[in-house]
Amino acid sequence: MKKDAARDALVQEGRELLVAMEAALLQIESEGPSKDAINAIFRAAHTIKGSAGLFAFDSIVSFTHVLESVLDKVRNGILKLDDAMMSLLLNCGDYMGDLVDAIEKLQEDQEPDLARRTELEAALNAHLEQVAVAEEASARGMPVVDATGLTETVAAVTAAAAALAGNAQHADVDGDGDGEDDHPAVANPNWHLSLRFSQDVLRDGLDPLSFLRYLLTMGRSVYAHTIEHTMPTADEMDPELCYIGFEIGFDSNADRQAIESVFEFVREGSDINIFSPHCPLEQYRCWLARMPERDRMMRMLLQSGALTDAECQFLNGEGPLPCRTVTDSDAEVSFAKTDAKTVAKTGSFELAPHAVADNGAVTRQKSGDDKKGQEQKFIKIEVSKLDQLIDLVGELVIAGAGASLVAKRKKDQRFEEATQLISGLVEQIRDAALTLRMVQINEVFQRFPRVVRNISRELGKEIELIVTGADTELDKSMVEKISDPLMHIVRNAMDHGIEAADIRREMGKPEAGVLRLNATHESGSVVIEVFDDGRGLDKEKIVRKATQQGLIAVDANLPEKDIFRLIFEPGFSTAEQVTALSGRGVGMDVVKRNIDSLHGEVDIFSNPGKGTMVRIRLPLTLAIIAGFQVVVGGAVFVIPLDLVVECINLTAHQVHDNVVTLRGEPLPFIPLRELFDLPSRESPRKSLVIVQYGQMRAGLLVDNLLGECQAVIKPLGKLFSKVKGLSGSTILGDGRVALILDVPHLIAHTGQMEQVNIRRSEVKAEFGERM
Amino acid sequence: MPLTQSTRDGHLRLLVNGGFTIFQAAEYKPQLLGVIDNADEMLEMDLSGVDEIDTTGLQLLLLMKREAALQYKQLFFNGISPAVQNVIDMLHLQGTFDIQPSIQGLA
């Protein structure tokens, strides 16, 4: 059980990292290589490898290892990030995705695709070999570099001043030295020892000074600071306790183990940090972050030359404010004195192989911090828990409605007020609970840059992808289900819609095709649009094909919209040749089906030669809606409130054949009683609820209006899945069941009636074209 | 007495002899602080007789220096034994303690 949870976590993390990796690669492609992006890729690969290693998923570890080696060379600028490399890295990312999938399916023992793996590994290794050869060739140059190092050592004292002043000439020397600046290493060529002893060390018969004395048999101290501000005031100070600590620069050839062993006896209870020469700046950062009086420490390190000016700025730029203000001015002065002398005497020098304050390092640091911030901002919750919460909120809504009903009957004003307050809060809770499930549609959109890139390569077309409205929010379950349909539409647009470059040129269009993804909110629904500036749909061809396939009658005179809709029919394809991507006639029908299952709608608009737009309209959520209750023939129905435009008294208007003239415009309506074949009841007046879905309006004729309510949607059973006009059911406050009207279907129904009536009234046809 | 007080040129002078280690620390601390309290403006310390110093001794010296500064009194050192010099060199403390060879020359 526990291992499974860990496995899930690994899989999820892996996927997230792969997405990040892909995004970074694509960013490099669009904006050129940046250190940030390259590091993001490296980090992703590295983390996946590390996590997989924990669980001994060796397959992924060994594969990622090779990839990581290549990435390392890329990061160090040894290998170039050219087009071929980009593709290779993307493919490797994909294969890692496959490996992660295998882990999820508990099939990590099987290689998903051995041939592909071998191929990728061969390609990666080829790059590595190329580097090895190059390195060998340059190996002869190495001694020269060493000599430079020696010269610098001799010129140490001057160099120290130069480095502190940020001397440009010195920077030049650095440039010749080493190009690597991804893991900013400190310039300090000496060991840095930070020693804080346990207070009891003296009582234990150990004298820190004697350890230092021993240490100095292995080398010489370049600088030393005695940390005395940790000593309490004279009255409180216990002379037998050890308060002081040391910061020591140590020039030695001894290895880490030897240096560490010096302090072996005092290690317990002490805080001993040993930094090797040119160790990553990050180590200092971590250490300083947990040091009290960080500011003072920094100054000390700067003055002694342990860190350069630039390094300090870098650390300071991101670090938190000093923990404490200076309380002991005297100690401060004494430090300054020591430092001045120390630097002058020993000439603690800076070899500064590179300027650490370079922008890349700083920004990366920032992005790291941002990431940290995000971790604190988000909390991962199992979806099932969220669903449970929403279910409960649903029950609460129903119970609340019941309570307010009781209150109304009691005619107790204070009781009624109280229930009103409660229902107001319940409404807010409902909204808040539902927004928990909302995710940005970007989750889907972010896959498309990659898809577009790959397909445009495959087809040899140049396609630019523009994504807008990626922050539009949508129910999580919806996001998952809309991904496949969208993918189909996008592929279709690129394959069939956008023409090849030469044809585009002939037509006077820019060579690069444009594919646009857009998402917006519109009257209680989310609209997703996929637009391409390709050749558009060929109406005649569609009609011809459809007639051939017997989808429509030969003499059928369909409006444009319905013709376009034919492409959603199963097995329908107008493509002359079947490509790997599309044209087999499978796909668009799946798109339609998927969108239908989400209670959504899909429309196509096309302009020959100019482009095509596919518009998908989805309801915001599937769980709870604000509803409008109406009574028809004694039964209560609920209409989604978002779709209700207005209510009118029908008797006051002119009615003709289920069309009412409202403010001079014709509006078709449906008598619900007749539609559902409900018993007739005498009611003094008839009300018309006007609903709008998309750009279409229609009226619903009802007996009585009851007002707003919260409706928790309960799906209708399988038995009713074919019933049109109803989208679900809900439980009313008094326990009765109310059916929720499927407004989009009802509006479509008026359209059909209109087809029948089309010859009778030309005015109605105009309505059909209204969009 | 390992700690000897005397007066020279109108200022207090303290001579430390023998060990300046954890074995003496508890005993020395109040005495050393007392000397600072008693000093007028200047306190001279002669460490030439110190034949052994450890971390506690160093801590006491640092404490005295701090205490003197708090009382706006000058603490300077005249006469440093090799043992003390060794520690000062090791920890680069030359600047921390006001060591005055000139007065040593006069002595």
3D architecture notes:
Chain A is 49% helix and 19% strand. Chain A has 27 helices and 22 strands. Chain A has a six-stranded mixed β-sheet. In chain A, a hairpin with a 2-residue loop joins strand 8 (513-522) and strand 9 (525-532). Chain A is extended, with a radius of gyration of 36 Å. Mean pLDDT of chain A is 75; it is low at 141-182, 319-375, 580-585 and 758-771. Chain B has 107 residues and is of the alpha/beta class. Chain B has a four-stranded mixed β-sheet. The two termini of chain B are 21 Å apart. Mean pLDDT of chain B is 84; it is low at 102-107. Chain B contains four helices and four strands, in the order ββαβαβαα. Chain B has a single domain (3-90), classed as STAS domain (Transcription Regulator spoIIAA, 2-Layer Sandwich), CATH 3.30.750.24. The A-B interface holds A 202-203, 207-210, 212-213, 216, 221, 223-226, 228, 231, 234, 237, 239-240, 242-244, 246, 328, 330-331, 334, 337-338, 340-342, 345-346 and B 21-22, 25-26, 28-29, 33, 53-56, 58-60, 62-63, 65-67, 69-70, 86-87, 90-96.
CA-CA gap between termini of chain B: 21 Å
* Order of helical and strand elements of chain B: EEHEHEHH
Q: Main beta sheet of chain B, described? A: 4 strands, mixed
Fraction of residues in β-strands of chain A: 15-25%
In terms of quaternary structure, the protein is: heterodimer
Mean pLDDT of chain B: 84
Question: How much helix, percentage-wise, in residues of chain A?
Answer: 40-55%
Question: What is the CATH architecture descriptor of chain B?
Answer: 2-Layer Sandwich
